[in-house]
Amino acid sequence: MIHPASGFRGTRAGVTEGTGVSFETEDQGKALPRIRVSYWCAKGHETSPVFLKLPEDQIPLIWDCRRCGAPASREGEGAAAAEGLDDGYKTHLEYVKERRSGQDAEDVLAGALEKLRARGVLPDELLRDP
After folding, report:
1. Nearest CA to 81 among 124, 43, 34, 33?
2. Which residues make Cβ contacts (< 8 Å) with residue 50, sequence separation at least 6?
3. Strands 62-64, 16-17: pairing kind
4. Closest alpha carbon to 28 in 39, 38, 15, 40
5. DSSP assignment of 56-106, as one string?
6. pLDDT in tens, 56-90
7. Where is pLDDT greater, at 30 or 6?
8. Is 72 exposed, middle or buried, given 0-12, 13-18 or 19+ CB atoms closer than 10 A?
9. Are 45 and 72 in contact (CB under 8 A)?
10. Structure confidence by residue, pLDDT tens digits, 12-53
11. I need a labelling partner for 3 at 20 to 30 A (CA). Which of 31, 35, 45, 98 fits?
12. Worst-scoring range by mean pLDDT, 82-86, 103-107, 122-126?
């Protein structure tokens, strides 16, 4: 058992200030200042993570976009859009569209629906062509 007057307390590093051994200060538990920094990817998505208020040179210049995964910069929306993506992040659907035509997709879908109907998962009248 830990003695209640022990100097060791469960505090999270870097989140509060005034967490020394003496807990008698008035500002104990005061939140550290934070800043929100905006980043824009080439597709124009804005990502705004929150950082501790640090010197400008310690805040990252590049951050991954939360929507598309592409690198995002702090230069501003116009600068990020001008850079463009040459061979960046692609979604699964984009890769599929590169490999298959629209007619291929229709054929695959029709085959999958027929298999489901044959197993009795889909009723015959559901999604039938008129």
Report:
1. 43
2. 34, 35, 36, 37
3. unpaired
4. 15
5. GGGS-SEEE-TTT--EEESS-HHHHHHH--SS----HHHHHHHH--HHHHH
6. 888 889 999 988 888 999 886 544 444 554 556 78
7. 30
8. buried
9. yes
10. 555 555 544 445 555 566 888 999 999 999 888 999 999 988
11. 31
12. 82-86
CB 56 within 8 A of CB 63: no
The answer, yes or no, to whether residue 3 has pLDDT greater than 50, is: no
Q: Going by CATH, does the domain composed of 34-88 fall within 3.40.50.1170?
A: no
Instruction: Parse the chain into domains and list their residue ranges.
Output: 1-32, 34-88, 90-130
DSSP letter at 10 equals -
**3-state SS class at 117:** helix
Rg of the Cα trace of the chain?
Answer: 27
- State how far the Cα of 110 lies from the Cα of 108, in Å rounded to an integer: 6
Angle at 117 (CA atoms; ends 113, 120), nearest 5 degrees: 145
For residue 82, report the phi and psi dihedrals to the nearest 5 degrees: -70, -30
